[in-house]
Amino acid sequence: MLKLNYNRIALLACLFVSNAALAQGETVAQVELKDLRSSRTTVSYHPNKPTILMFYQPGCKWCKKQGETMARLQKQCSDSIHFTLVGDKGTRSELKRELRHFSDVLPALQNTDVFARQSGGIIGFPTTLVIDNNGEILVNNRGMMKDTILNRLANQLTQGLCSP
User: Fold this and answer.
1) Contact status, residue 35 vs residue 109, Cβ threshold 8 Å
2) Could you report the per-residue pLDDT of 58-83, keeping only the tens digit for each?
3) How is residue 105 annotated by DSSP?
4) Pair 155, 162: CB distance under 8 Å
5) What's the predicted TM-score (pTM) here?
């Protein structure tokens, strides 16, 4: 419990200069979502490491920009953090077509109404969630997160193991 509180304080300090909101005890259940890059289904967050999940929609230029940073961090930090894209507000074919703007290293899933409700709703794009391996939403951020904030967040989540 002490470690969890320390992590919350550290994340709050890390995000102080951004517009991210520290989620207050919200949790999301493991939900199976369809993979947009294949025909299989996968779970919404990783059970063994924290997940940084970004909701995107077709035509969102800020989503593409944040996706570049997430792809770089995925290459550097994949042993410690799981990064995922979740497409919303489009048909499956529109969301798959939009993936041409994102790196293949980022897993991409299709959102469902159930998952959207559980994760607190999506008001704008991109919306970024930081989910711990128990499903607790640590951060719920609407709008693009700056590179420096994502870098600090990755460093903080891994306790210094991932310092881009």
Assistant:
1) yes
2) 999 999 999 999 999 999 998 899 99
3) T
4) yes
5) 0.84
